[in-house]
Amino acid sequence: MVTGRLARRIEDIQREVGRARTAIKVLEEQVQVWDEALDEMRLRSLVSETPQVSADYDDVARHASFAKAELQRRRSEVGELVERRDELLRQWTPEGTR
Q1: Rounded to an integer, what distance in angstroms lies between the CA atom of residue 31 and that of residue 70?
Q2: Is there a contact between 38 and 53 (Cβ–Cβ < 8 Å)?
Q3: Rounded to whole angstroms, how far apart are CA atoms 23 and 68?
Q4: For the CA atoms of 66, 67, 70, 76, what is the dihedral angle to 10 degrees?
Q5: pLDDT tens for the 98 residues of the chain, in order
Q6: How many CB atoms lie within 10 A of CB 46?
Q7: Handedness of CA 67, 69, 71, 77 (dihedral sign)
Q8: pTM value surpassing 0.85
Q9: What string of DSSP letters covers the chain?
């Protein structure tokens, strides 16, 4: 019975890892887009030097910063989930191998 619950918990964690890794891929793409937009805004702010362009740059920089922070949080989450899964795997004995 305990082995069955342990196996289900391992499966649940593995699904969470999969979802988090998918989110990481999306966030990596978003960060890339924000970084490209930030580079473009940086050039515009150098050429234009208007308050609006400066405000736009700050807005894009804020979005890029949030996206990078979320990406780092998700990577940490995956690391923690993998550690938890690995610990459960060390405790688990598949049925029929006892």
Answers
A1: 10
A2: no
A3: 13
A4: -130
A5: 567 899 899 999 999 999 999 999 999 999 999 999 999 988 888 888 788 888 889 999 999 999 999 999 999 999 999 999 999 999 887 765 65
A6: 10
A7: negative
A8: no
A9: -HHHHHHHHHHHHHHHHHHHHHHHHHHHHHHHHHHHHHHHHHHHHHHH--HHHHHHHHHHHHHHHHHHHHHHHHHHHHHHHHHHHHHHHHH---TT--
Give me the residue label for tokens 């702010």.
45
**Is the separation of the CB atoms in 85 and 3 below 8 Å?**
no
The span from the CA of 34 to the CA of 66, in Å, is 10
The end-to-end CA distance of the chain, in Å, is 14
Please name the amino acid found at residue 66. Answer: F
